[in-house]
Amino acid sequence: MTIKIRKPKNKVYKAPTGPGYKPGVFSRSETQAYRDATEGKSIDKFYDPQRDGVTFSLLSTFLDCREKARFYLQGWTPTSSSMALTFGSIVHKIDEWVRDSIRSGKLKEVPSKQYIKDLIHDVEKLWHKDNPRAGKRELEHLELSLLLAEGVMPRYFQYWYKDFSDLRWEKVEGVFKVPYTVKDRKGNNHETFLRGKIDGSFRMKKGGPWLFETKTKSRIDEEILADILPFEMQANIYLSVLRRIDKKTPSGLLYNIIRRPGLRQRKNESIKAFANRIEEDVGERPDWYFVRMEMSVDEAEIDRFELGLEDLISDFLLWWSGNSGHYKNTNHCQNKFGLCPFVGICLRNDKANYFKRKTVFRELQEW
Ligand code: SF4
């Protein structure tokens, strides 16, 4: 079969078929090899659910596409990173450090611009340590993200100045592990644990604990967000875990959104002038950049969510142990975030832009 692509130059693309074609990285025999291995023959596993657990990000990858989850669990990692991810990680880290300093009493007022600048410098060092093989594109993303953070973060803390006086911070990047056991049809147990880090929790002068969850986004549609927030998996996982830790139903969720500026550096504009322009824009319309949504929480809703979560973890464990089917979700190859990051390796068996990472869950590392 040939498919003609009319743009840009009537390129002819040969669809991968016929005797020479390797259908992706995982053939039937490889699937069988994994099953054999889990039935007693020992192999050095990169991932083991009992040893490594499951995270929100793994479960949502599994929901996206089982093939994608397999690549991920074999350690395959795209060498390129997105601008959204770089900016999000930097902002999260600075927010975490500031909140931790408030909690420990080291910081009692809105941090100065110089204070944030020093944190940005520390975050840059951490990023380089964690990304020793970053290429030109990644370094460009880093440079722009640091610049955006310098323009946004001082204003952000000024805008939410009451965080420093009215909220009592309890958990900042609190790590959790919740055990799960599932039985397959033959009666065998499959064990794992749900793990992750909560952005933060706090109490106001009155009432129970609140979950604090931060997101960075370039687009914010408040109406759509308000509709889907009660069903958001990550927030619900954290609410459920917070209920276990505090032995009390949380009073609510404070969903904290920081908008990623869409401004571009002009031709001949110096970095300093660009940073100033971002800061001015944020200062002129802070309510456009910083949005918070409060959601009250009902005990029965957390109960209902936990039932669904148990089913999802059960599906994952049965799939991983070879007790349920494996298939590709080709509806996800192109999705609202763009292309699936595994398109190259999955559809063309091209490993050039991937490497095998050493740790299973990079999101749980220091960075
Ligand atoms: S390219 Fe498509 S089929 Fe392959 S892993 Fe990604 S979503 Fe799944």
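^ iron/sulfur cluster complex. Residues 5-30 have pLDDT under 50 and may be disordered. The chain is about 45% helix and 20% strand.
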